[in-house]
Amino acid sequence: MKAVFTLQARAGLGLAIVRRIRQWHGGDCWLQDSSLGGVKFVLRYPRHNT
């Protein structure tokens, strides 16, 4: 059970980091149903042509 608790604590920090990076780059993120069951986490960032 300790491993599960550790994983959950890391997941919370990871999502906070993803949110901040998304904000910096003007992206978007959401949860979507997965055809394999459960959900998938989708990230979308604007394309910058240089």
Secondary structure: elements and pairs:
Layout (H helix, E strand, L loop, with lengths): L1 H24 L2 E6 L5 E6 L6
Could you name the key traits of this structure?
alpha+beta; two-stranded antiparallel sheet; 1 helix
Describe this entry's structure for a reader:
- With 50 residues, the protein is of the alpha+beta class.
- Helix content is 48%, strand content 24%.
- The chain has 1 helix and 2 strands; from the N terminus they run αββ.
- The protein has one helix at residues 2-25, and strands at 28-33, 39-44.
- A two-stranded antiparallel ribbon has the order 1-2.
- Strand 1 (28-33) and strand 2 (39-44) form a beta hairpin.
- The longest helix has 24 residues, at 2-25.
- The chain starts with a helix and ends in a 6-residue tail after the last strand.
- Residues 1-7 have low confidence and may be disordered.
